[in-house]
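Design request, tokens follow.
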């Protein structure tokens, strides 16, 4: 959602920026460097977001049984790992879990595979 931002009644003309939805009805206001300096706020360098869902035990067992898949999993970007773990957390049945365990191991180890709506080449 585009917005105009005035900070400390000093910004003329107001800055244009965006508020991004969080998915729960709330929004995040993005401030670029000049805005943060004017507002006397800093970026939190200690913030580290990673996967929000734990690695399921059934997937951990599959990875441990396949060293190539484990190596490729470790090389994935955190956002790709997060996407896969979020998908796994939504699985409702053992059949779906087993089917997707086979598919993700194949995506990580095969030269070319299609998984989660994208083409995987050499495990990435």
């Amino acid at each position: 959602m585009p917005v105009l931002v005035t900070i400390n009644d000093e910004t003329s003309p107001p800055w244009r920026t965006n508020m991004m939805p969080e998915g729960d009805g709330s929004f995040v206001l993005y401030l670029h460097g000049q805005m943060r300096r004017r507002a006397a706020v800093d970026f939190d360098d200690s913030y580290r977001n990673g996967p929000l869902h734990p690695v399921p035990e059934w997937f951990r067992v599959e990875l441990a049984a396949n060293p190539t898949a484990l190596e490729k999993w470790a090389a994935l970007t955190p956002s790709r790992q997060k996407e896969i773990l979020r998908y796994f957390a939504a699985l409702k049945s053992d059949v779906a879990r087993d089917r997707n365990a086979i598919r993700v191991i194949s995506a990580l180890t095969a030269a070319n595979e299609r998984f989660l709506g994208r083409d995987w080449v050499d495990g990435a």
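Comment from the thread starter after seeing the answer: thanks! The first strand starts at residue 2 and ends at 5.
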